[in-house]
Write a structure and sequence with these properties.
globular, mainly alpha
Length: about 220
């Protein structure tokens, strides 16, 4: 699974390197030069296809529903981490962990400093390995409803923190973003520069996710 995820991360970084060579020869800095709407739309659906592939890998690797989910989370985190590793090795980017990046495009652009998805990936790998190990030892592992809701809530809050700055920008500009409109797709990026990452929102979500994992581990040690 690790090898598959690392190979996928290299493919991801290769695509990004090609796009930057075509559209951002002077550097990947905000505001971004608009790219061809057809290419932008392909890039959007390529990211959707990547997630489907990672989900499929988790389904094939796991035996139970929870273990399959854990393998998907593990593969996703490895893929995301090594994406930055390969970009840095190949083109020397990002320059630092505080460099802003477009993290995802679905359903709207997510933006944030590189360190934010990286620490989430570390947490995801830790949680996924914990579930996989418990499942392999016992054949079955159960996560309480409370811990599920804590994890889901934390995940949602972190996602909103990545969208926050871009949503604020589009609201101020009274603009909209639609994957179905070539004219609108990525048009806002030509004037958008990230201003401030919502640290409070992000770390609130991160705390919910950490608490879910820690409480699950503590419950296991009490048995």
């Amino acid at each position: 699974m690790s090898l598959f995820a690392i190979a996928m991360s290299f493919l991801e970084s290769a695509v990004v390197i090609y796009l930057r060579e075509l559209y951002y020869k002077n550097g990947f800095n905000f505001p971004l030069q608009p790219i061809d709407p057809r290419i932008a739309r392909v890039e959007f659906f390529r990211e959707v296809a990547t997630i489907i592939m990672l989900i499929a890998a988790g389904i094939f690797a796991g035996r139970t529903k929870l273990e399959r989910f854990a393998y998907f989370v593990f593969a996703f985190a490895i893929w995301d981490l090594f994406y930055y590793v390969f970009l840095y090795v190949c083109i020397g980017w990002p320059q630092s962990l505080v460099t802003w990046d477009i993290l995802f495009l679905v359903p709207i652009p997510w933006v944030g400093p590189v360190w934010a998805p990286c620490i989430l990936c570390v947490l995801m790998i830790t949680g996924a390995l914990f579930i996989i190990r418990q499942t392999e030892k016992k054949g079955f592992y159960f996560i309480s409803i409370t811990h599920w809701w804590m994890m889901i809530t934390g995940t949602f809050i972190c996602i909103v923190s990545f969208m926050w700055d871009y949503l604020a920008f589009t609201y101020e500009q009274n603009s909209s973003w639609s994957v179905l409109s070539s004219e609108q797709l990525f048009s806002d990026m030509a004037t958008y520069t990230p201003l401030q990452f919502n640290y409070m929102l992000f770390f609130t979500g991160f705390l919910f996710m950490c608490s879910s994992l820690i409480l699950s581990i503590l419950n296991l040690t009490k048995k």
